[in-house]
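Pipeline run #58 for the internal structure catalog. This entry was flagged by the ingest filter as a single-chain record with no existing model, so it goes straight to prediction. Upstream metadata was stripped on purpose; only the residue string is passed forward. Reviewer on rotation: M.T. Logging verbosity set to normal.
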Amino acid sequence: MTRDRDRVAVAASAVLAACLVLSPAGSASAAQCLRGANVAGAEFGDTIGKLGTTHFYPTRETLAYLAGKGMNVVRIPFKWERLQPVLYTPFDINELQPLIDSIAIAKSMGFKVILSPHTNARHSGKQIGSRDVPASAFADFWTRLATLYAGDGDIIFLLQNEPDFMDAAFWLPSANAGIAAIRGTGADNMILVPGTIWTSAYHWHAEQPGGSNAQVMNGVVDPLDNYAYDIHQYPDEDFSGTHRTCPAKDTAIEALQRVTDWLEASGKRAILSEFGGTSSPDCLAAIGEIAGFVNDHPDTWIGWTYWAAGDWWGDYPLSIQPAVPGGPDRPQMDALEPYVLGSSGKIPICAA
């Protein structure tokens, strides 16, 4: 255990040294809009699992494929329990190092990287904010992770993926504890803050005990005001991304418009970090319309990441990964690619 802790410390020191030469993220100036994809794999499998058998971290090949499409951001989902099997303890170097390596590869290709603990606001099945996983444990996790990349403007911290089966009023104190922990390290990186009910645009104004996401999440506290809301929206029949057709495209766009109106009224911004569809013609149309909607609102939306790429998807119906390495693009990539650079051939600027 002592040897593993020493190796974590060495890895952390190396990352911190590299970070010192990078410009801080900050929120004072506009930045290039984000256009990219989720690179899934590190969140696959059982709670702990075995690296290389149940799960893997993004590969150079997949990252190069996305870079070749002009994308400038990747979201990397991973499981909190794998980095930190026991709360309040150092990270497991066997999981930390592959994550660090994938991040370094992505950065070398010009990507910004969204780090996304992908556990639905839980650790080992227990909700953040509960007696088993108090907000202090969540803060400890973020203190350790943010310390590795504090001040690195290429790294964006997403607090959690899709908090579910909890009210926004229950989630907000833990979210603010995570933000405070990140800022306590000196990190001025952008932070992404999800709401509850899978942080869906369709459910953003839905009534909850204690108030809707639209009401409660106005209570986010960030002393640097360098955050954006993390929003998801799928166009299938129940907005889950699990069906073969997309009959709810218009409803999805309407939901995004309501969130846009809310953002404008509150002077805030958001990212659409999950959307996608199958190769069904109505889903392909929806993919383009949703990406186009976000592109058309750069004053409130800082960008999007499609769900999903990743080497192990196989025949997963939403994948934009070629079925075989070097194989033809999937129809979803054909539908999405025109919205990466647009007619100008250059990703535009989004408001800070």
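catalog note: Residues 2-19 form the longest helix (18 residues).
catalog note: The radius of gyration is 19 Å.
status: ready for reviewer M.T.
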